[in-house]
Amino acid sequence: MSDSGARGAPLPEGGERRGLFIVVEGVEGAGKTTQVSLLLDWLRAQGVPAVRAREPGGTPVGEAVREVLLERRELDVGPESELLLMLAARAAFVRDVVAPALREGRVMVSDRFDFSTFAYQGYGRGLPLDRIRVLNDFATGGLRPDLVLVLDLPAGQGRARQIGAGKEEDRIEAAGVDFLDRVAAGYRTLGAEEPHARLVDATPEVEVVQEALRRILVDHFPEPLGAGRGSTTTEPSNPRTDAP
Fold first, then answer.
1. Cα distance from N-terminal residue to C-terminal residue, the chain
2. 32 with 54: CB under 8 angstroms?
3. pTM to 2 decimal places
4. pLDDT tens per residue across span 170-207
5. Alpha helices in the chain (DSSP H)
6. Contacts of 151 (CB under 8 A, 6+ apart)
């Protein structure tokens, strides 16, 4: 699948980049998982070869790191170790999941990518952003998404949604309100300032947010998703759920 719009960096280790790499980001409870699912349904209904993934995860290395980072609350994982574990998972994710999909001409829609590292380990944990970016570029081979959709929601509102859904805190969420507020502020800054990102208000109902996401995609990628490829009308079939 070709695209006449702005493109992310080339694939690591060479190779033609024929697909699109779209990422949905945001704080816990913003609705990422639900919105990714709805986007996949919409894209596939139009005949677009779309696949989904989550980060950290998608590979054996990524799933093992995910368990350590999110579930092993008894472990004392410092900010530097947290960062390096995340980047180890990302290196495998790019090599084994994202790069093959892009070479095959697919649209990869990922639940989180590098903005999560900038927001959580950078703005949240206080690690230097310039150093994180250098290490992230090494882990990804310089690969960047074509578009990052940042769901903007106050951290407290996101946590309230999770409590209402009966979700318990994971190890990172348990870092406290101040930490999550810094993360939310970081996402807001990234979404407003990074040229390949779009900030989307995540406070309305699921279908309103989904409609906004679809319109951004159609506007940003007119060749594969423009007029004649189907309606952007939202018909959500799942309640809002969200996994980090």
1. 29
2. no
3. 0.87
4. 777 778 889 999 999 999 999 999 999 999 999 999 99
5. 32-45, 60-66, 79-93, 99-103, 114-117, 129-140, 155-164, 177-193, 206-220, 222-225
6. 24, 25, 26, 27, 30, 31, 32, 35, 200, 202, 209
| Nearest of 235, 200, 201 to residue 217 by alpha carbon | 200
Boundaries of every domain in the chain:
43-148+204-225
Please state which architecture CATH assigns to domain 43-148+204-225. Answer: 3-Layer(aba) Sandwich (3.40)
Residue 231, helix vs strand vs coil: coil
Please write the tens of the pLDDT for every residue from 64-75.
998 888 878 778
pLDDT value of position 189: 97
Residue 46 is encoded by which pair of tokens?
């139009």
